[in-house]
Amino acid sequence: MGGIELYETDAAALAFETAPAIMWLFTGPEHRIRAANRLARASVGDRPGLIGTPVRAAVPEAAGQQVFELLDQVARTGEPQLGVERRVEVDITGDGDMVEGYFNYSVVRIVAPDGTWVLVAHCIDVTASVRQRHAAQAEVAEVRQRLAAERRVTLQLQRNLLPTGLPLLPDLGLGAAYVPAGEWHTAGGDWYDVVPMPGDRVGFVLGDVVGHGPTASGAMGQLRAVAAERLVRGGAVSEVLRALDTIARLSPDARGSTVCVAVFDRLTRVLEHGSRGHPRPLLLGADGVPRFLDGPIGPPLAYLDLDSPVAYTTLTQGETLVLYSDGVVEAPGRGFTESRDRLVDCVAHVAARNTATDPRDLPDRLCSALAAMVDNQTSRDDVTVLAATVLAGPAPRLELALPAAPEQLVVLHRELNAWLDALSAHRDDRMGIALCIVEAVTNSIEHGYRDHSGTVTVLAELDGIGGVEVTVADTGTWREPVERSPYRGRGMLMMRECSDHLSVDTGDTGTTVHMRRTIRRPPVPQPDFDPPHPLTAPHSFSVKTEVSGTTVRVFATGVLDSSNAGELRSALQEAARSGVGTCTILLADVDLLTSAALRVLYEQVTDLRATARDLRLITPPESPAAAAFTASGLDQLLPVYSTE
């Protein structure tokens, strides 16, 4: 015991020395080390001169680690101190290299009858167990990181394989939602599609591939492509199921997949449907009462040699068809019957709360509610829902007769936005349609009625197969521009870029522009991804100039078209005359950029280049301004930067 007499028996001294714990005895205000057993001495490297030395001098590297302060507190207050896994660094070898250790400890003050006291520190070295736990935690963290990375890749793959939107049809309201499985159950098996078909029919498909991850997503992509191809060609439900069955037999990853296929005749309102291992479709009546459709269900894909059984149901106005994956009715801890009852109750509840809702919006409400019903943090399967409501009246249409004057563009933007809002069109579709219509009307004003006044008519409506038909007409006489410029023709190029079909018919009685663009309604946003924000383009415009050092910045906001292109030109010319070295225009907050404004930018860049100066065009890659540069081809002629 280092020569210290304990005034106890030799057995007690031996027990102290060989105790399976670190034990220290300190006395006096300096906490001199009066005793230290073998594990205590080993914990500081068996350094000489420990006994009788104040602890601050014996173990100086403990300063700053709150060890000495702990002893001071117990000595002063007499209150015991306990701790778990306290981290302490000690120079065991004496060469200055600190070694980390973790200790469970207790420090108590014991007072003798004569009033003297000693501090007893009892410590258990738990360094090995703490390091094992840290290593296990690091391994778990690495596994979680790998799983998270795989999940992100799979979700991105899944999103790319699923439809980017649903076709906008005049007599059907459509909605869809997809929720991936919980964090530890990688997504990638559910899929759905809505396909306009020949003969005023539309096909619905919702399926589930066995398994998860990229492999399941790949099999899902195969099945979806085959189903879409058969439906586009007008195949009946049995033909689609037969084709899917063939693919499943050839592809081991698709074997055992389940699917529900339905074809709705929009003229007779007869629904043909068939399922292979998939839950029965649900039909929400116009009276708000849901029921499951009758009909046989065949085995999963690749397990049937005969044609798949099909059934027929006639739908009526206001009824809503709901297809769903088994993730909706196979929740952990609930039986199948209970989950089906929850599904029915949820649908009935949504119907009761939305009696005054536009029927076109009811499918979205249903899909959102059913997706929210499932806890995607604990769900072991993806959840997919597809809904379609039979509508009564025709879809909203845009029908305008505008005086051919630039100030009428304000009216055009207002009515155009209201119409696009009613359709709930996708952001990209809104921007493309707005560009086409505004460019066509601007051309009529500039070229058709240059020498006299007149009227421009605009008619836009859904065509019944998922597209928008637009006709812009005037009764003026086309006049070629007096001024020839290499910039000319960009407006027509933008119109062609933003439409699937464009035709221009000019004659003595006027000019008619006809355009068509496939248009889609966004599904309910997926978790883990930014929801699509609708693009609104109120007809407002502002431009602000700011000078900082040798740079002048021009901030443009709102809609830039022919009605305010002159203001934009004046602002840029004033900025150029300021004499500042660099001129920058920031277009991130521009909602719509038409060819008239693009021409101003092109001309100002050209003019400044002639004086050995630059106009820098700044806009994010996904902005409406960037889309306009790409559509017009000006991104090939002008340098466009994403940031300053």
TrEMBL record:
Residues 541-644 form the STAS domain. Keywords: Hydrolase. Gene3D superfamilies: Histidine kinase-like ATPase, C-terminal domain, PAS domain, PPM-type phosphatase domain, STAS domain. It comes from Actinokineospora cianjurensis. CDD domains: HATPase_RsbW-like (cd16936), STAS_anti-anti-sigma_factors (cd07043). This is Anti-anti-sigma factor. SMART domains: PP2C_SIG. GO terms for molecular function: phosphatase activity. Pfam families: HATPase_c_2 (PF13581), SpoIIE (PF07228), STAS (PF01740).
